[in-house]
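Intended use. Records like the one below are meant for learning the mapping from a protein sequence to its folded structure. Do not use them to infer anything beyond what is encoded.
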Amino acid sequence: MSEHASELAKRIVARFGDRVAAVHERLGQVTVEVTPASLLEVARALRDEREFCFEQLVDLCGVDYASYGFSEWEGSDEASSGGFSRGVEGAGPGRFRFGEVHFAGIARRFASVVHLLSIATNRRLRLRSFAPDDELPVIPSLTAVWPGANWFEREAFDLFGIVYEGHPDLRRILTDYGFVGHPFRKDFPLIGNVEVRYDPEKGRVVYEPVSIEPRVLVPRVVREDSRYLQSRAEQEASEGR
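Structure written out for the chain above:
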């Protein structure tokens, strides 16, 4: 842990105690995990107290940890002589209409992650809070602390289905009004649930079942690189082959 990150982590642990569930450092940046019950209190202190002074919310996003650590790749030890075979069986979550979700030991699925910046101290901090209920993920809204969180939280609600309690206007911001589901969830089908087109006879946009066939595209041909053909021919000629 870098010196500045280590110092910041120690200050946060000393200040908030058991209100901080965990503190991690990676690549010189500190991540603080806070329970939803303590999120607003910790957020206000991080903003207002002079030793922290994280006055700016840079970003907020949702995270779905379902299938975290799971990969469709066969590693070099498992792959055959024919090469790698990513997704040949379509084993990934959401690959087809009802993709299997692997939890890989993850106890909590949805989290809200906030990236903070202190202009006064030139430090950054990541604040993460897990929703206690996977069926209805609810996390307190930070709009009362950092008003700029408003549209970010709407985006996380739209794409991940995370409900931000106390948000002044929580509604979809990217998908259509009648959109069903949350497209960034790991179990959302990659081909979608419906397709949209404009019907000139009806004079409006219509929704229809997806007509494309789900498939996995795997390159099966290794083409020679023409840049090396001449040099190879010259080398073989010099060796008398």
